[in-house]
């Protein structure tokens, strides 16, 4: 099993779509930048048949330093979550397409 990288995605675009390598990289960067900007604005990104990236807001809560046991506040923050589509879940579990 290997990790999918930007370079490997751009190479797939190059071989399967037929764009030049630089055009493939530009296309990939444009898609990723659009997704990042949408998530930054607090909106969700839904890719049909793949899944949905969502921004979740977490409120302030208290945590504990495991070493000292001292209670500390954990500040509010935003996290990005991913929910796979039914199609992707089925494929990951070996269901036929």
From TrEMBL:
**Gene Ontology BP annotations:** DNA recombination; positive regulation of metabolic process; regulation of DNA-templated transcription; regulation of translation
UniProt keyword list = DNA recombination, DNA-binding, Transcription, Transcription regulation, Translation regulation
**Annotated Gene Ontology cellular component terms:** cytosol
Which SMART domains does the entry mention?
BHL
Is DNA-binding tagged as a keyword? yes
Q: Where do transmembrane segments lie in this chain?
A: none
Molecular function terms, GO-annotated? DNA binding; structural constituent of chromatin
Q: Which residues form a coiled coil?
A: none
Q: What PROSITE patterns has UniProt attached to this entry? A: HISTONE_LIKE (PS00045)
Q: Which family does it belong to?
A: Belongs to the bacterial histone-like protein family.
Fetch the PANTHER family from UniProt: DNA-BINDING PROTEIN HU, INTEGRATION HOST FACTOR SUBUNIT ALPHA
Q: List the protein's name.
A: Integration host factor subunit alpha
